[in-house]
Amino acid sequence: MVDDTIAAISTPIGAAGIGIVRVSGRQAIPIVEKIFRSLKKRKLADARNYSLLYGHIVDLEGRVIDEVLVSVMRGPHSFTAEDVVEINCHGGVVAVRKTLETVFRAGARPAEPGEFSKRAFLNGRLDLAQAESVMDLINAKTEKSLKVAVNQLEGKLSVEIKKIRAELLELLAHIEAGIDFPEHDIEEVSRSQIEQKTRDILGKIDALIDSAGTGKVFREGLRTVIVGKPNVGKSSLLNALLKEKRAIVTDIPGTTRDVIEEIVSIRGIPLKLVDTAGIRETEDLVEKIGVQKTKEVFEEADLVLFMIDASTGITEDDRDIFRLVKGKRNLVIVNKTDIRRDIDISDMEKYVEKEDVIETSLLHGRGLDKLEARIEELVYSGLAAGQEELLVTNIRHKNALEKARRSVEGVLKALDAHLPTDCMAIDLKEAYDSLGEITGETVSEDLIDQIFSRFCIGK
Amino acid sequence: MEYLAGEYDVIVIGTGHAGCEAALAAARMGCKTLVLTLNMENVAFMPCNPAVGGPAKGHLVREIDALGGEMGINTDETNIQVRMLNTGKGPAVHALRAQADKKLYQARMKKVLENQERLDLKQALVERLLVKGESVEGVVTRTGAVFKARAVVITTGTFLRGRIIIGDVSYSGGPNGQAPSLGLAESLKEIGLELGRFKTGTPPRVNRRSIDFSKMIIQPGDEKPHNFSFMSRKRYREQIPCWLTYTSEETHKIIRENLHRSPLYSGMIEGIGPRYCPSIEDKVVRFADKPNHQIFLEPEGRDTEEMYVQGFSTSLPEDVQIKMLRTIPGLERVEMMRTGYAIEYDYLPPTQLKLSLETKKIKGLFSAGQLNGTSGYEEAAAQGIIAGINAALYVRDREPLILKRSDAYIGVLIDDLVTKGTNEPYRIMTSRAEYRLLLRQDNADLRLTQMGRSVGLVDDERYRVFEQKSRLIEQEKNRLAETSVAPLEEVQNFLLSKGSSEIKQHTLLIDLLKRPEISYADLRRLMGDFPDLPEEVAEQVEVQVKYEGYIKRQLEQVERFKKLENKKIPEWIVYDEIKGLSTEARQKLNKLRPLSVGQASRISGVSPADISILLVYMEQKRREAPEEA
Ligand SMILES: Nc1nc2c(ncn2[C@@H]2O[C@H](COP(=O)(O)OP(=O)(O)OP(=O)(O)O)[C@@H](O)[C@H]2O)c(=O)[nH]1
Ligand SMILES: [Mg+2]
Questions:
Q1: In chain A, at which end, N or C, are there fewer CB atoms within 10 A of the end residue's CB?
Q2: Same structural domain for residues A360 and A397?
């Protein structure tokens, strides 16, 4: 039996901002105990199986993260047949994420894709018939999380991590070449050189933790773009969601000339909401620039709110826009239903789910609730741009960076304690491997290649 | 005419460093053993540098010794200089290196083979292996002698289809002017084994009397030389120094001017050479901005004037070699005695082996040493002893001895070879070991003697010494953990004089020893009434206490590592049946057939998801057919 303790956000996360962090393994109860403050001062260790405890999750510094219900299920009477603790968070995505991070810091490690099911099966909780589906699950989840990881890695984060790893490897190879080939004229790395390089690397890791810590989506919000032909009610929608008059609303088509961006919180989910200039073939130059920008913004969107005007019915312009929208995760908003309701959207229906068509009358504030509920559902069920995997990979990255940080600090401590370079090499290797977890690379061959390519070694 | 010449339990082909250890191990474990050599004069021959040990290699020698092997004792008995390297870099990388007297080393090893009970040493060229069905049955020699055995260990080094290259001259041959072995290579191919081609090189040897040492820097041995073997008692014999000099601008110029005559650059050599042992022409080309390279002159023995020119491996033509040598300070009038050469040879890509070093194809057929794509005497000997042990265990129908990566450098070496293969002659390095702080050269006996004992290779005397040492270490650690000192003035003064800080209350000696600046010897000086312990016991206590934190961390890593390592993959597994595996993983797993899930996870191209799927599949099969698992 594998006996390290794993944690993950258990899926699917329900509506209304509730998310469950599941922890499984021999240390599950002591780990959560460290970060849970029961209101009635009860201990998890004393809790009855399947009872719910009410209290707060606090981080290791004692700051409250969220109000939670915690349940304890001891093995073998749990899903994985190991001790399992589930933390029901209420504070939305951010709270769930922070809770999971804290669980990692307290000693759990991120679960591999499908690992809960895998353990359940290996520990005899799932029957033989389910073996195939567990394997399928592992494959599907791995593929999905890989895709997200790759997307993210193409960005700035991966470039930075690669740079740091290269520096670690250079330092390590220098130390190791001296150890493995002591009588060659390799200039030994001095302790002060090691210290200087290590501090430098530490600074870079810190900067990365600060910036990448929350992850792009959770720092900037879900990128949501409102598109539609002129005068359909886009600016009205922005204002309605913001609950303030941010954009100018007129009955003149082409009012919005530029892209307007606002951060909105919808049921606890941060949305980066973008109102755009109406798209249509246009002669007006200023407007044309605005339209150009719209297309750019549109490219980067996680979610598109495509508005059509019930009073005019579907026009050529709508069809043109829809061609752009089709490939994106989108909701179709049929506005101005106070004027007319029975419009024919049949040529779009084959591309759009029924639940994704929402009728509104922004003039009367109708349909907004339905829209908000649908957005929330999308986010929590992970349908919008694979948010859930994104969330998990983000936390994994941060976790790996923090592990690397601790190892690099270990080098400085060893220097301080006048320990030999050999001990520092252990920490450096660990740091290198932790960062490698993010990119999926391991140390051994890299190191040996580096030694031979940089140093002239031979008999 | 073929005739039945003898029946044995184990036959070892070759008496290089692998062959000697394999033969001795099998015979000492009680097997009737035959060891065949091409040439009686070449038992335990060192074709390259006259040295044993160094980082990681010295670790291997001590491990071989702890298991009951011969290399350590043989080196201790015959060396002409000993140095402990890396003393300033931490206990795990301390490395013992000895200069060997090549002739003495060979002579003593031959005598040990000759006098070993149950072991026959014979000179014969093996032409062919006898295989029946899937099992080996014996060997046939060129003269028609048929020797039968249940297990055969091949350790033919670089002899298989060997070819010597010196500049534009090339001829078929083994190292040092010997005949190559051609028939055996064919025989291996016939039974379905694949062969690859590697190359390696060796520098020229020169006459000591033609060297001007006044232009060189002396490299003496240690004042208090250590031994490799845990059984050798300290002896201070006269040591002979080595000498250091450097190549010059002029040397590099000659090399550059003659590069077109180098077989490496003319394409005459097809085999792949090691990166860590480049020829001097390689170094000059690859590190063009380096103005000079180190050259060590090492004596080949006590009673010879021959000296080995370390750092000067080359396959340039003979006339160029002489010219190059004479541009080196101190070698202006040097006389070359043997010419440097490159050698190409067939090797057996080691992914065809199990971790026991038995071939996957043929039962009872084992392979060890340079033949498996390694370089170095120590790497060869390490495989030799394991192949010998496992051949003997095979004959007895016992489980093979497999050292893990967390047990020994030997484990790292064999796991690397078998699991990852190698695309250049493989050299062991401390950086290849994940658990370096545990695999120290000072504790090889504590790690391995018990294992050697359980397979029947460690004799009573060695075992007694081991038990005694273990007991003393425990006792002394306990004593330090119970004895404290008071914060008296003399204590404080002593601590301050060592650059340490004062103590505030009664303090345990073990806690003082944890301070980096306080050594065990310091404590002895401070306390006075210390027990009289052997040096190696005090050393163990000191290392174990001082590096406790790091050791503990590595032990935890090992615990995690062992979980997957102990999960054995049943032999009957059909990878093609497992749907979820990636194509690459399926192919590699099919080819390599790893023993454990841990080993599988180290195969490149096998992802964590593949491992998860493998685990689920294994469990599924186990439940479907509980009686099989
Ligand atoms: N009857 C009715 N009128 C609406 C509704 N929503 C918006 N309008 C009106 O439609 C007109 C255009 O609204 P805007 O929000 O400016 O439209 P827009 O899509 O931003 O237009 P441009 O910026 O010009 O592309 C305004 O006069 C709104 O008051 C609705 O649900 N019903
Ligand atoms: Mg507008």
A1: N
A2: no
DSSP state of B246: E
pLDDT digits (tens, 9 = 90+) for A277-306: 766 655 554 455 556 776 777 777 888 899
Ligand 1 atom nearest residue A275's Cα: 20
**Same-domain check for residues A104 and A161:** no
Please tell me whether residues A181 and A266 are part of one structural domain.
Answer: no
- What letter does residue B419 receive in the DSSP assignment? I
CATH of the domain at A282: 3.40.50.300
The predicted-structure confidence for B290-325, as pLDDT tens digits, reads as follows 899 999 999 999 999 999 999 999 989 999 999 999
Q: Which chain B residues touch A122 with a CB distance below 8 Å?
A: 615-616, 619
Q: Is A253 among the domain residues?
A: yes
Residue A324 pLDDT more than 90?
no
Express each pLDDT in B474-507 by its tens digit. Answer: 999 999 999 999 999 999 999 999 988 999 999 9
**Residue A371 and residue A242 in one domain:** yes
Quick check: is A448 in a domain?
no
* Model confidence at B231: pLDDT above 90: yes
Across B55-67, b (16+ Cβ under 10 Å) vs e yields: bbbbbbbbbbbbb
* Chain A residues inside the 8 Å CB shell of B609: 112-113, 138-139, 142
Interface confidence, given as ipTM, is 0.88
The closest CB to that of A138, out of B49, B276, B613, belongs to: B613
B560 contacts in chain A (CB < 8 Å): 4
**pLDDT beyond 50 at A51:** yes
Rounded CA separation B109/B122 (Å): 14
The two three-digit tokens of residue B449, written as one number: 């003697």
Q: Which domain holds residue A353?
A: 219-380
Cβ contact B430–A176 (<8 Å): yes
pLDDT at B68 over 60: yes
Tell me how far apart the alpha carbons of residues B267 and B298 are, in angstroms, rounded to a whole number. Answer: 31
pLDDT > 70 fraction of chain B, expressed in percent and rounded: 98
A200 and A239 inside one domain: no
Instruction: Give the whole-angstrom CA distance, residue B163 versus residue A421.
Output: 43
pLDDT band at A214 (very low <50, low <70, confident <90, very high): very low
Closest ligand to Cα A277: 1
Which residue, of A65, A93, A127, is where some domain finishes? A127
As a whole number of angstroms, the distance between CA A399 and CA A396 comes to: 5
Residue A75: CATH number of its domain: 3.30.1360.120
Neighbour order of strands in the sheet with A260-266: A260-266, A269-275, A222-228, A303-309, A330-335, A357-359
Cβ contact A115–B86 (<8 Å): no
**Mutate which: B93, B219, B295, B545, vs A, most A CBs within 10 A:** B93
Task: Give the DSSP per-residue string, B586-603.
Answer: HHHHHHH--SBHHHHHTS
Q: Which residue of A has its CA nearest to B618?
A: A122
| Cβ separation A422–B608 shorter than 8 A | no
Comparison of pLDDT for B217 and B612, the residue scoring more: B217
Q: Which residue has the higher pLDDT, A281 or A357?
A: A357
Residue B137: partners with Cβ closer than 8 Å, 6 or more residues away: B130, B131, B148, B149
Does residue A385 lie in a domain region? no
Task: Give one DSSP letter per residue of B171-186, joined into a string.
Answer: EE--GGGPPPB-HHHH
A62/A170 same-domain check: no
Inside any domain, residue A450 = no
Domain containing residue A167: CATH number:
1.20.120.430
Phi and psi torsions of B628, nearest 5°: -75, -35
| Overall number of domains in chain A | 3
Residue where one domain finishes, among candidates A380, A404, A431 = A380
Same domain, A207 and A223: no
Cross-chain residue pair B437–A423, CB shorter than 8 Å:
yes
The verdict on A292 touching B (C-beta cutoff 8 Å) is no
